[in-house]
Design brief:
This protein is mainly beta. It has one domain: Immunoglobulin-like. It is built from one helix and ten strands. Strands 1, 2, 3, 4, 5, 6, 7, 8, 9 and 10 form a ten-stranded mixed β-sheet that branches. The structure holds copper (II) ion (CU). The site of copper (II) ion has 4 residues, from strand 8.
């Protein structure tokens, strides 16, 4: 690639970025899901963990979760080692919602099938403002707990 082509590519790249920025209002949430997984279930009960990052200019909330694998998916937080169903989780503007082992989690009741390690479980996250996001949760070993520092 010669120098002229390179600078042309760079120019196009910059233009695209600027256009996208101009299109997105600062008053909407911009959500991205990462670090998602499901520990391999050993009963008809499953848990899901993930992080939702909000780089937008408005707060949002995770309000519900649906999945092919269960008709009864709820969102739970853990307090004093007891879990409790909640109606929603906050995803603050410029912040993140972290579901981690020992803390908040997605809860799958009455699993229709028990996924094996290495399989993927499709879920859809529903938010108060943002469009739903489909996520594939990789199934990890039952005791899996990613070290985060
Ligand atoms: Cu739970």
């Amino acid at each position: 690639m010669n120098r002229r082509t390179t600078s042309l590519v760079l120019t196009i790249g910059l233009t695209t970025t600027l256009t996208l920025t101009a299109c997105s209002s600062p008053n909407v949430p911009e959500l991205k899901v990462s670090d998602s997984y499901m520990p391999r279930p050993v009963s008809d009960l499953g848990a899901g963990f993930l992080t939702v990052t909000n780089s937008g200019g408005a707060d949002d909330k995770l309000t519900s979760v649906t999945s092919d694998i269960s008709d009864d998916v709820t969102i739970h937080r853990t307090e004093n080692q007891k879990m409790q169903e909640v109606k929603s989780f906050d995803i603050p503007a410029g912040g993140a919602l972290d579901l981690e082992r020992g803390g908040s989690h997605l809860m799958f009741m009455n699993l229709k099938s028990r996924p094996a390690q290495g399989q993927k479980v499709g879920i859809e996250l529903h938010f108060e403002k943002a469009d739903p996001i489909k996520v594939e949760l990789p199934v990890k070993e039952t005791t899996y707990n990613p070290a985060r520092h």
